[in-house]
Specification:
By secondary structure, this protein is of the alpha/beta class. Helices cover 57% and strands 10% of the residues. The protein contains 17 helices and ten strands. The strands form two sheets. The protein has a six-stranded mixed sheet, with helices on both faces. A four-stranded antiparallel sheet has the order 2-1-4-5, covered by helices on one side.
């Protein structure tokens, strides 16, 4: 999917923003504290201007020296308090925003893990990275640059008008009108103009990220194919397009921001006229006149940020629409869930391996199942399958016939195109993610190896796994010598997606996750790929032997996709997937030349 294919209506973007902003999970108390700190900062500045104006214009009248002393002390106190409140404002506002982004990304990953279908697989990796990185950050920026400034502007408008009203009602009315023009009309104009350009900024940024990540991932292959210069030129074009989009987006925001000083001039003129009228009629002293003339200059600090806030809102709406497209409808109600490969996250793993092994597996059944990526892309048709508790089934078939697709459907990662999948008699797509993952995990062929330690890569499967359990799992899959050869053992860092380990080590590391998890029902996709025949066949036999508890618990159920037909133990049920959606279920026997034999 191209990043630039995202086109949504303004109403759809607003709806997406409402759904996604709830994932920030910002406590009202923290938001209130941030707003109060920011309002106190500007209130201190406003009060400082008022006291200073009174002091400057009253001192020549030689008032009581005690009055002047109080005013001087107040100026110093307000000057210091402004700095203190500014520090609190920055600390509290960024604390709220950063906590919100952490919650947002956690909920986004949770929603991605629950999402069924192939929508994610159709996205470029760089595009998805841009959505989870930059677009998620836009939601945090919304708090800092739009939500808090907007609320503070509303508070300060009331403070300014209430302060000026006792001095002069005409001046207060003029100030209210000016603040309304600067705080409502200017941001609306900025938002309307920015709405057309900020979407382009978000999307060109996604194109830029996707192009850059693609070059980094495939640099060696591109150099061998003599295409590296071509891709670098594409990256340069993407950078130029992004820069141009930023320039176009900055223009309307700059024009709207320039309108605020223009409105300030009107407010100053109105206040000067009101002050002149009060002076002529003798109804105000020198201090009041000075305040009326000088206060408008410090009254617009809050509303000055609103045009930029409106542009940020337009940018965030575009980002929210892209995030909503990525995570799907499940993002509205985040709940604990497993990662996309079917392995629970660390928070879900609170029991020991033995406790998990004692959980009785439920019966997993498929009736009239059609597995695929839609009505026009069905890989397996009209399948009836029953996985009894403790049973092991091998799945074989040619490349591309739908073995992995079948596993994804049985695991609940894809919805059935037709028919049904039931777990313990319940329709699997209607069950919650937590209920499904308590019974079923799927370790797919492309499961990710994270750029972290060996230990943390196993903790993906179970957050409370001990060092002894990690060592036992790695020993069970034959990686004990490999771990001992690493400079820091379990705490050695791995490269991104397993680039620093061999294919066979990668497959066994992923298999060790299944050993650590010890789920009641385990679905494995080619667990012995890239291994030598002897070692791979030994692992496969142990996986398919219900009485062997060295890898999977005795009594646990498993469906294992494999191409090593020779290693399937006699008596094992074998599901052969045929081209065109056909299938047959047979029992493995000793080697024979009869047609249709799994051997």
């Amino acid at each position: 999917m191209s990043a630039t294919s995202t086109r949504t209506t303004p109403r759809a973007r607003s709806s997406a923003l409402r759904r996604i902003i709830g994932l920030l999970e910002i406590p009202r108390s923290r938001m209130l504290a941030a707003v109060l700190a920011a309002a106190a900062t500007l209130a201190s500045s406003f009060a400082l201007a008022a006291v200073a104006a009174w002091l400057v214009t009253t001192a020549w009248t030689m008032p009581n020296v005690l009055d002047l002393t109080v005013a001087v002390v107040a100026v110093r106190a307000l000057g210091i308090s402004r700095g203190v409140f500014r520090w609190l404002d920055r600390m509290l506002t960024h604390d709220v925003a950063l906590r919100g982004v952490v919650s947002l990304r956690t909920n986004l990953y949770t929603a991605l893990a629950r999402r069924r279908g192939d929508a994610l697989s159709r996205m470029r990796r760089g595009d998805l990275l841009a959505r989870l990185g930059d677009d998620a950050q836009e939601l945090g920026d919304l708090v800092i640059r739009a939500v808090v400034p907007g609320l503070v502007a509303a508070v300060m408008t009331v403070v300014v008008v209430v302060t000026i009203a006792p001095l002069s009602l005409p001046a207060a009315a003029c100030m209210l009108l000016s603040l309304a023009l600067a705080g409502i009309l200017a941001p609306l104009a900025a938002h309307r103009a920015a709405r057309l350009t900020e979407t382009a900024v978000v999307e060109t940024r996604s194109d830029l990220t996707a192009s850059g990540l693609g070059i980094l991932d495939d640099a060696t292959a591109l150099r061998v194919q003599n295409r590296l210069e071509e891709r670098l030129e594409e990256l340069a074009r993407a950078q130029r397009a992004h820069d141009a989009a930023i320039d176009r987006a900055a223009l309307p925001s700059a024009l709207a921001s320039a309108s605020v000083p223009a409105v300030m001039i009107l407010a100053v003129l109105g206040s000067v006229l009101a002050a002149g009228a009060a002076w002529l009629h003798g109804g105000a002293g020198a201090g009041a006149i000075g305040m009326l003339v000088l206060l408008p200059l410090s009254s617009f600090e809050a509303v000055t940020a609103l045009p930029a806030a409106a542009a940020q809102l337009a940018r965030t709406r575009a980002a929210a629409a892209r995030l909503d497209e990525a995570v799907g409808p499940d993002a509205a109600s985040p709940t604990p869930a497993g990662i996309a490969s079917g392995v629970p996250d660390g928070a879900a793993g609170t029991e020991s391996t033995d406790a998990r092994a004692q959980t009785a597996p439920l019966r997993l059944t498929a009736h009239g199942l059609g597995a695929g990526f839609g009505p026009g892309a069905v890989r397996v048709e009209d399948l009836d399958l029953e996985l009894s508790p403790g049973e092991r089934i091998a799945v074989i078939g040619g490349s591309g016939v739908g073995k992995t697709t079948l596993l994804q459907t049985l695991a609940g990662l894809l919805d059935p195109v037709s028919g049904s999948v039931r777990l313990g008699g319940r329709n699997l797509p209607t069950m919650s993610e937590a209920e499904v993952r308590a019974q079923v995990i799927a370790l797919l062929e492309d499961a990710h190896v994270f750029a972290t330690t060996v230990r943390e890569n196993l903790r993906v499967a179970r957050g409370d796994v001990s060092a002894q359990e990690c060592e036992a799992a790695l020993r069970a899959v034959g990686l004990e010598d490999w771990v001992e050869s690493l400079p820091r053992g379990l705490d050695s860092m791995l490269g991104p997606d397993g680039t620093t380990i061999s294919g066979g080590e990668r497959r066994r590391l992923l298999l060790a996750r299944a050993v650590v998890r010890a789920a009641p029902i385990t679905l494995l996709d080619e667990p012995t790929e890239h291994l030598d025949a002897a070692r791979g066949d030994d692992l496969l036999r142990r996986l398919l032997d219900p009485a062997d508890g060295s890898l999977l618990p005795v009594g646990a159920s498993a469906v294992i996709v494999t191409h090593r037909v020779e290693a399937i133990p006699d008596g094992t049920h074998v599901l052969r997937i045929l081209p065109g959606g056909g299938h047959e279920l047979v029992r493995a026997e000793s080697r024979t030349d009869e047609p249709g034999s799994p051997r």
